[in-house]
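hey so i finally got around to running both of the ones u sent me last week. sorry it took forever, my laptop kept dying halfway thru and i had to restart like 3 times lol. anyway pasting them below in the order u listed, first the sequence line then the structure token line for each. didnt double check formatting much so if smth looks off just lmk and ill redo it

first one:
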Amino acid sequence: MKRLGSVQRKMPCVFVTEVKEEPSAKREHQPFKVLATETISHKALDADIYSAIPTEKVDGTCCYVTTYKDQPYLWARLDRKPNKQAEKRFKNFLHSKENPKEFFWNVEEDFKPAPECWIPAKEIEQINGNPVPDENGHIPGWVPVEKNNKQYCWHSSVVNYEFEIALVLKHHPDDSGLLEISAVPLSDLLEQTLELIGTNINGNPYGLGSKKHPLHLLIPHGAFQVRNLPSLKHNDLLSWFEGCKEGKIEGIVWHCSDGCLIKVHRHHLGLCWPIPDTYMNSKPVIINMNLNKCDSAFDIRCLFNHFSKIDNQKFARLKDIIFDV
């Protein structure tokens, strides 16, 4: 399968959305819902949504692989956010009935300082060398995942910089009905974005690992193509999510030919997430590490060592993977 688009900014919904004054099922303490109407958005139509490739929207945290210290590195998502004074001005602007067309940011003064190694996400508009905040008042960006940084310990558990490899979950190359966990060279993932999933990410909707033995994996964006999707109509998509095995996913991301990414989330259609039995957990998974040369060099507590101990084993589903430690 060809490499699809990377996630460098928030994705718009395929439908025009509306706000309803009801408590959100997605975000605690949010007193409103954002729901899809039946109208396809102009952004989706302009991106030729009908010719786009639909893929599974995976529920995790976004990562990026690019060069740092002259080698391929995993980077974690870190959005720069406004300081309290600027945030108050921005909220007043959003709630003003007589607001002007545009809010003016002073990027150098309005935002909390970023780590020295922070970089803005690609595709972010820049004016006079400064990145322009998005419609939410954030500047999407990335920070490198250092080996001993406790803040990103779950990120660092899926990479080994000494051998320049990452733990990746994708379809088996010879069997689309079989998942495969393998050690992939970081150089093969350069300039790609991926989703980190697992025990300590977003409430662990896929049921991976345990508190005692946490398990995390990377999934390249666009890795799980959606087959037999119904027509792009609100009710047809709603029925698909509710009524078939393939619809037991968080949402859909359409990869358009111009590089644009368009999404729909179950919550846009008034549906629940997470759900008990996900489509990802309906497929068997095989471990294919092929790390004979490196086995003895791994820390005995690291995921690479644990997976090398169960190399070539097959499990009925992802949540059945248990390490015998």
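and the second one:
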Amino acid sequence: MSLFRIFSFSKLDSFHGGDMAMRLPFPSTHRRIPTLPSLASFTPRRRNVAMASAKRSPKRLKYSTPRFTKEGEFVSIEVDPSGADSWKLEPVIELLKQGAVGVIPTDTVYAIVCDCKNHSAVERLRRIKKIESSKPLSILCRSLRDIDTYTMGFPRGDGHGHANVFRAVKHCLPGPYTFILTASKELPKQCVGYGTTSVKYASRKNVGVRISDDAVCQAILQSMDAPLICTSVKGPKENEWMIDPTIIGDIYGPEGLDFLVDGGVRVAEPSTIVDMTGPYPKVIREGKGPILPWMVVEEEDESSLRQDLIASGT
């Protein structure tokens, strides 16, 4: 008997609506030839991917950072000023790494901070504090190594009138001082003052640097991968600082802050600012840090850059 059962085409049509491709029973030894997908179906997708990647320049890829998406409410964490319960800071550290902007205590006054490498976070900080993009900001560093990385460093004596004050500076830090130094290429230009509003044509400028002698502040910094941009939490009046974290939260929370670390009420003593970019260390604001013999005090400096650093410094 034949292995195949013979049907008429008319019967095939009645069973399958005229489908001439009806599968007939084949012997077990028959191998089906797999049907390959059409190559044309893949071509447009490849072309679209190539076009999408061509639009993104290497520079944009290098500096692109994820934008912080606020999913919850304003976060307020109360900690011991001694840092004994620094484990409570873990949520704040994660928020900072994601691009959040918040308030933390320092050894002087409270500061609004964000990750210096997150461009969208720096933009938000400027909007919250109402600081123009041409104005300089300060950075909170973890150690002297950070200062050497993100600035051109302290004068070590070069035979051109610059004194070697590095050894003297090491005895001041950590401490209530802000030192003005020339920023290096590692620090995004967005964090310093420009001579022009265009970042593309901006020249390298100066930046204030701090190493805070505060246990809570240091606990946060030691868990970060880069310094924090910082600006003091000032009141509505000139030379007035907010020192009560409850009031800070009530005023700046609605402005867009993501978190606040409550380290208790502080004393309204900002840092002493010393300009290290000239031929000698020049005090431009006396604050909590005492004036040392190697620092020079002159008449009040009215230059716009100095005034901007005084206004934003902690």
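quick thing i noticed on the 2nd:
Confidence is low (pLDDT under 50) at residues 1-30, 39-66, 194-203.
anyway thats it, ttyl
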